[in-house]
């Protein structure tokens, strides 16, 4: 599968990436950078595409990257 190919992503993952991208654009991030960050977040959560043949197939999701700002500050 060529780099940048989105065939192994589910419709849910594509919707999530669009929503994340829109949020970055609202904060003034350039369009291409917003798209890059959005897919990076989706990949971090789902470990890649979730259809058979994708890197995240059969792996549990990690919702930590979706937390607002990641983990800020130190542990208490």
What would you say about this model in short?
The chain is an all-alpha fold and 76 residues long. The protein has helices at 11-26, 31-46.
Protein model, in words:
With 76 residues, this protein is an all-alpha fold. Helix content is 42%, strand content 0%. It contains two helices and no strands. α1 (11-26) packs across α2. It is globular, with a radius of gyration of 13 Å. The mean pLDDT is 83.
Reconstruct the topology from this structure.
Blueprint: H1 11-26, H2 31-46
What characteristics describe this protein?
mainly alpha; 2 helices
Element pattern in H and E: HH
Beta-strand percentage range? under 5%
Radius of gyration: 13 Å
The helix count comes to 2
- The rounded distance between the terminal residues' Cα atoms is 44 Å
Work out the helicity level. 40-55%
The largest sheet, given as strand count, sense and whether it forms a barrel, is: none
The geometry reads as globular
Which class of secondary structure composition applies to the elements? Answer: mainly alpha
Number of strands: 0
Uncertain parts: none
């Amino acid at each position: 599968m060529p780099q940048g190919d989105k065939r192994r992503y589910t419709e849910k993952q594509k919707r999530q990436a669009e929503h994340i991208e829109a949020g970055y654009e609202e904060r003034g991030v350039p369009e291409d950078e917003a798209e890059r960050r959005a897919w990076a977040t989706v990949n971090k959560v789902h470990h890649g595409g979730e259809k058979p043949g994708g890197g995240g197939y059969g792996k549990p999701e990690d919702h930590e990257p979706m937390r607002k700002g990641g983990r800020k500050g130190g542990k208490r």
